[in-house]
UniProtKB/TrEMBL annotation:
Domain (ABC transporter): residue spans on this chain: 4-235
Name the UniProt record assigns to this protein: ABC transporter ATP-binding protein
Any one GO molecular-function label of the UniProt entry: ATP binding
Listed InterPro entries: AAA+_ATPase, ABC_transporter-like_ATP-bd, ABC_transporter-like_CS, ABC_transporter_ATP-bind, P-loop_NTPase
Keywords associated with the record: ATP-binding, Nucleotide-binding, Transport
Originating organism: Halalkalibacter alkalisediminis
Matches recorded under CDD domains: ABC_NrtD_SsuB_transporters (cd03293)
Family annotation (PROSITE patterns): ABC_TRANSPORTER_1, ABC_TRANSPORTER_2
């Protein structure tokens, strides 16, 4: 079991003139295999929170642990999928994937095979010799998903990975990512501005307050909605009701600031 635990985590950015408190006393526990989304107004610290969990930043106070290990620096057990795919345009898809493994120091004959298997499973087996600009945006994000899965992390950090895609591609990719992560029993944290996406993909939705981000409320998504594909969850009889609840709470938060 590798529960992710944040205990009283605060983070500030020091600039020449002042210190900006970005996150204040965040305490949260995420179980193995859980899918949690983070929602909140622009600038409330969502990306900062992911960077802390990924070990790219250190908190000014508090502690983050994955299982019994404190997260202090970037860690092979944690994978990223971002809004941009960050594929190198001069390398083929296969070379990009192999570079990803090498950068994370996980390259071996077996991880190479795994990466190519994932590429096949996600419908891109025939694209491995192409260059990124020969693929659509949705395909490139699928490659980014393969790159993340190939290092076999137990925790996946998703920072708005669908926001640059057209609506149809976004819905299809949400289903693919959800299905893949659930069947591999991965834990995932998704940062998004899209309330519908958060509801459709998650077991829980965490709403942060405006800066400095604090946990304002945590919404449990009913199991029968959380356990089905996001596209189907959007058609669920209680989806709109859930949407309204979170929407109204976000409006209340915005009005109070
Ligand atoms: N490197 C930095 N130096 C100084 N301040 C920063 C830095 N990075 C972020 N901040 C500030 O910290 C706060 C939180 O930023 P962060 O990017 O985590 O918010 P966010 O919720 O992800 O925003 P958005 O929804 O707009 O992407 C913001 O006020 C931002 O201006």
């Amino acid at each position: 079991m590798s529960t992710l635990t944040l205990s009283n985590v605060s983070m500030g950015y020091v600039t020449k003139r002042e210190t900006t408190l970005a996150l204040d006393s965040i305490s949260l526990s995420i179980e193995d295999g859980e899918f949690v989304s983070i929602l909140g107004p622009s600038g409330c610290g969502k990306t900062t929170l992911l960077s802390l969990i990924g070990g790219l930043l250190s908190p000014i106070s508090g502690q983050i642990t994955l299982g019994d290990q404190e997260i202090k620096k970037s860690n092979a057990a944690i994978g990223y999928m971002l809004q941009q795919d960050y594929l190198f345009p001069w390398r083929t898809i296969e070379d990009n994937l192999m570079l990803g493994l090498k950068i994370r120091r996980t390259y071996s004959e077996s991880t190479r095979r795994d990466a190519l298997n994932w590429l096949q499973q996600l419908g891109l087996g025939d694209k491995k010799d192409l260059y990124p600009n020969q693929l659509s945006g949705g395909m490139r994000q699928r490659v980014a998903l393969v790159r993340m899965l190939a290092t076999n992390p137990s925790l996946m950090l998703l920072d708005e990975p669908f926001s640059a895609l057209d609506y149809q591609t976004k819905l299809k990719l949400e289903d693919l990512v959800f299905h893949t992560l659930k069947s591999e029993r991965k834990t995932a944290i998704l940062v998004t501005h899209d309330i519908g996406e958060a509801i459709a993909m998650s077991d829980r939705v965490v709403l942060l307050s405006p800066r400095p981000g604090r946990i304002h409320r945590v919404f449990e998504i009913p199991k029968d909605m959380a356990n089905i594909l996001p596209f189907d969850a959007r058609q669920h009889q209680h989806f709109n009701e859930q949407f309204q609840i979170i929407w109204k709470e976000m409006e209340r938060l915005a009005a109070a600031t």
